[in-house]
Amino acid sequence: MRRRNDSHDVVVAFAAPADVVAARLPGWFGTPEPVDDGSCVPRATVGDSLEWLAVRLALTGVDFTVRQPEELIRCARELGTRLSRAAGSGRADPSPP
Questions:
Q1: Which of 12, 46, 54, 92 has its CA 20 to 30 A from that of 3?
Q2: Which residues are within 8 A (CB) of 40 and not within 5 positions of it... i.e. 6 or more apart?
Q3: Has this prediction a pTM greater than 0.85?
């Protein structure tokens, strides 16, 4: 695990207009650069944990692709796998694990 004071150069492609993404990301993440009318790429140097950043990106409610760093790609993949397992088959299970 990385120490909190490490920083990471982050590039993420969003499948949404820059103004939509800007409204859903914290200001410290930077200003998304429009690619076209329906996509944008914010670039930032962040000091937060990559695990937390993967969660924060998912909370935007917008489809995205992590381009860098490789460690964030792994965190997003692991988060997706964990959330898929948590959702199970989609049926409600009234019994506790």
A1: 12
A2: 13, 14, 16, 17, 18, 21, 32, 33, 34
A3: no
Total number of residues shown for the chain: 97
Q: Band of the pLDDT at 30, cuts 50, 70, 90? A: confident
**Is 6 a residue whose pLDDT tops 90?**
no
Tokens representing 97?
Answer: 């694990």
Fold that domain 8-84 belongs to in CATH? Alpha-Beta Plaits (3.30.70)
Exposure letters 38-53 (e unless 16+ CB within 10 A, then b): ebbbbebebebbbbeb
Domains of the chain, by residue range, sit at: 8-84
Check the CA dihedral 14-63-81-95 and report its sign.
positive
When comparing pLDDT for 41 and 97, which is higher? 41
